[in-house]
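Run folding on both entries below.
>entry_1
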Amino acid sequence: MSSRVKKFLSFYGPYKRLLALDLCCAFIISAITLVLPLCVRHITQNLLEAGAPDQLRDIALMAAVMLALVLAHTLCNLFVDYKGHMMGAMMESDMRRELFAHLQKLSFSFYDDQKTGTLMSRITNDLWALSELYHHGPEDVFIGLVKFSGVFLITLSINPTLSVIVVLFLPLMFVYSLHFNRKMNRALRLSKERVAQVNAQIEDSLSGIRVVQSFANEPLEQAKFDAANARFVESRRLEYRSEGLFYGGMEAFSQLMTIVVVVFGAVAIVHASLDLPDLITFLLYVGILIEPIRRLVNFARWFQEGITGFQRFMDMLELPPAIQEPSQALSPARLRGELELRNVTFGYRDDFGVVFRDLSLHIAVGEYVALVGASGVGKTTLGALIPRFYDVSSGGIILDGVDIREYSLASLRRNIGTVDQDVYLFGATVAENIRYGKPDAPRDEIVGAAQRANAHEFIMALPQGYDTEIGQRGIKLSAGQRQRLSIARLFLKDPPLIILDEATSALDNVSERVVQQSLERLIENRTTLVIAHRLSTIRNADRILVLTADGICEQGSHDQLLESNGIYARLHNLQLAP
């Protein structure tokens, strides 16, 4: 048995008892469906024609039996429809949880090539189809086979010739249904791809709504959405056309079979090889026969759709994170913060070339080092390598004398704090966003962190203070306020190593001064690497490194580098120029 088959069946594990009860109820439903026409036959053939003295009493008794069977049928149907669907929903929830947990582990390099809308479609649409297969698959096959074999055996015992005539229709029905079922599935897969594209387009446009409106490009975004939406509608047209031909054809076959049974049954009655009660019973079973055929064909549809979703699910689940931990990873509670790069070479992908080559530097514990240079030389990339968001192509990054690849990712990243230019805040309250730095922090610690980040005053001016909802990405706050909340998060986290990536470059002068004060408090007694755009913010750095395409070309204090009149001095003079 392949690993994927085992994985597919493993999701039934926690629900084996529920599955057994579901199939038991399905068997009872099938059995009752097969027995009811026999009850009708008994009434019409044995009670009405026989002329028994207690005819009314026997009919009443049979009516009571049939009512009891209908009640049992209804209760079992209720269980199958409710509990069976809940089983599928819980399995879907388990799969969605596992997939989400795996997505959390995938590295930045994976998300560099993915669209959020497409991933959301994988987690929702694909898994919904799979849950329907998990629920309806065993149930439809079981009910379909029981009813089909039961109808065939019972009709064969009533009239073999008429039974064979009916059976001759079945290969035609299966060929017809499978043909249009395949068409429906192709159209359905196309529809899912198209709706994923629509999701991605919506996510992209709405996330950038402020850029869209600032450029007055609403018509452009509407045109892109309309194009994606039109492709989706076309895929739905193909799907519904195939669906109409499928169900319309099945209905036509059902009516045709009824006509054939009536005609050939009437001929058999004329020749005294069949009586009227048997013909009525036969017609009832022909009506029943259509339902298991539909179930089996629907199973084929759910199977194809569900297996396609499962393959996509497994393709994602089996995708290994680019960043791997060693089996015996080190997990120190707190590091000192001594950082060293030894001959580090890195490139995002082979076709992107090398960002930097053989880069080496050493930062002592508690040292404040700034990194400057032109855009595109790899400053931000270097900041992303230290927490292992990406792995070096060659060389090594050493933290407290140990290669960072020897640490567990959780331990490494707990000891590193980052403040970026583009701050991400969650659509929650102020307190919840600050608490993200320490999930179990009490309110007084949150307030203390906000005070050290110069954020307490503006927070208290908000409508509900620390309980104010700030909107997705903190959209209700200014850039400076968002930055101070991100700094407050780091005060709670309290890491020994800080990386500041152009943290104030997008702020106005007033906001920059306030945030700079917060940052100065934050970096006290911590190893700090600042990726700087505004050189005025790093005058007090212990050491400034100038990074170019050839590596680190200059280093020293602010005054030393100005005196050397090199690259740093030219950058500094350019920023001072009117």
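>entry_2
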Amino acid sequence: MKLHYRLFSSVWITLFLMSFSNAQDVFITAGTTISSSGEVIINFGSGTVTNNGVIANSDGTLNFSGPVTFSGAGTTHTKNLTIAHSGTSVLNNTIEVTGSLLVSSGTLNANDHLTLVSNAAGSAVVAPVGGSITGAVTVQRYIPQGKRAFRFLTPSVTTTNFISNNWQLTTHITGSTTGADGFDTTVSGNPSLFTYDNQQATGSGWEAIPTTNATNLNAMQGYLLLIRGDRTPALITQASQADMNAPITLSATGTLTTGTVTFDSSSSPAPINDTSNSTTDGYSFIGNPYVNTIDWNALTKPGLTGTYYVWDSNMGTSDNRGAYVAYDTSSGSSAPSSSSVNRYIQPGQAFFVKNSVSGTPGAITFNESDKLGANITNFYRTETTNFSRLELQVYETSELSLGGYPIDAAVSVFDHQFTNAIENGDVTKLSTGIENISFLNSNLSLAIDARPQVVPTDELLIQLQQFKANKDYTFITHFSNLDASTTPFLLDTYLNQYTALANNAATEVAFTTTTNVLSHAPNRFKIVFQNNTLTQPDIDAALMVIYPNPVTNNQFNISLPSNLTGEVSIRIINTLGQIVYGTTTAAQHAISITPRSVLAQGVYLVELTHEGKSTTEKIIIQ
């Protein structure tokens, strides 16, 4: 039986439910549009579907419950495509999927007629595969307008044709001054597409691709690609712009990767690093092999740390064009947290992993069951954590005033499961070669420093890297879930200044560098903590004024009201609660205090007791 929709002008037929079973053939004539409304399931039991018109099933599902041959010269748009039968369905007519492709049983021969759409609204995914998918599939990766910068990408398919017929159809890929080897021409000839060879005994690992007209893309490979924008001809000859000129959609056509995928020291073309190269330092650059979101925390990864790293082009100033962001399983944190990078690795996303032991390759395995199966509306998704934490961001002051992104950031998390030693949860810093900040612990630069709960003796050593002379910078500290009894301070060792930081809010601290190298020295700053419970007053704090404060010569004065009579007791208490000085004297308008021993630099409390009541004030010893 054949169903014919024969119309001489464009007619819309609105469907709420349609089912063709028992080997029925369907013929849709040119000029006919079949449009569904809502979550409609259009089921084909088997047979041949010839679509010379338009099937617009934008919120529904196209279901093949029996082997179907789908052909014709028309177009088909559907949210979901489901294959659930024995035997093989063949596509001879293009179907565009915006939601999910599910092959639960049987075989789908895509035959170069299936497109998994990615746009501003979301990206199509391939659900866990129970059957098989053969033939070429086109996978898109939408990149919203942003900085003209590098991105970590993977094509999600192993292409059946060269880069010039895939990604390069959308954006310029350079590497020649003459246009040789398929590259777009630039005056400099600088390359814009790289892979990473972690098997090099020496060197950085980055390698420019040799050609675009004789090189294929591989679904296992991670790629570093400069995204300028679209292929507007004038763009390639202009000086480097801060931003892309337009959003783009990269397309790659080839075979999908399905089933279990393991990256190890022998996997190709992306093995896990098995060298002792101190530059590549145990890092490996791989791509998410699936067209689906993967939960990093759920992956099996023996011999690797619990951290992965990506390049976020949103980070940093317009000059920086991005920064490394790390996500760590143990702490559940990313650094910086202002990035949207988190535990969920998106389709089309490439990333670095790191061996737990240098020179000893780990492994990482992806299973179909690891797919989350969700349509992703953004390239990254966000999440929150309940750990006590600090994020330290640094901005160029001028960029901050304009609402720009931070240059860089580092994170410290505090929880009883962590120690001050280097362990799981501590994430080493990947330097961008420009201004970076990290926390220094055991001579390691950390993007995430996992520590036990804060005690008053704690210090966080901030490390500045590549900071420049004669610049204005601003730190912003973001503490969250910190014990309300704790007060953190930023210590500037260059100016000998302490700045109190809000313990559950943001604090801005501006600083300037000069030609003096100490002003941008790596160890200029650190964060110290103090317990607030030592500062609770019993009497009016206005009774006591301490000057000078900060104290610079181990001597200070206490001013008291002239009507205060009798004896007063004075104690100096350090952040451990230890009494380091004490005296009793007659109350008078001005009392000079000179501790018998020179007090170490830091924050102290001066406690005044009069007639059984006390008040305290903080002092800073410099």
